[in-house]
Design a protein that fits this description.
Strand order of the largest sheet: 1-2-3-4
Largest sheet: 4 strands, antiparallel
Low-confidence stretches: none
Strand content: 15-25%
Distance between the termini: 15 Å
Order of helices and strands: HHEEEE
Mean pLDDT: 91
Helix content: 10-25%
Length: 77
């Protein structure tokens, strides 16, 4: 995740900061558009930081969320 985060365009950082605050309050807040993934990624979720950019994560347990990747829709492949 950190390696992919470093490649995030600077103009996306303001969106990321806003969404990060919401995510820390409620990972399923409707403004994040959090959704369960399908297929090989069926154990993962994703949420939007902007129209094109997503963060993929999984739930380790009830209290631990692991951020796995960040990127455009290509992050699903």
């Amino acid at each position: 995740f950190i390696k992919a985060l470093k490649k995030l365009p600077k103009e996306q950082l303001k969106f990321l900061r806003r969404q990060e605050h919401i995510f820390n309050e409620n990972i399923f807040d409707p403004r994040l558009k959090t959704h369960k993934l399908k297929g090989e990624l069926r154990d993962f979720y994703a949420f939007s930081i902007s129209y094109h950019w997503r963060i993929v994560f999984h739930l380790e347990d009830k209290e631990v969320v692991v951020l796995d990747n960040i990127g455009t829709h290509k992050v699903y492949k």
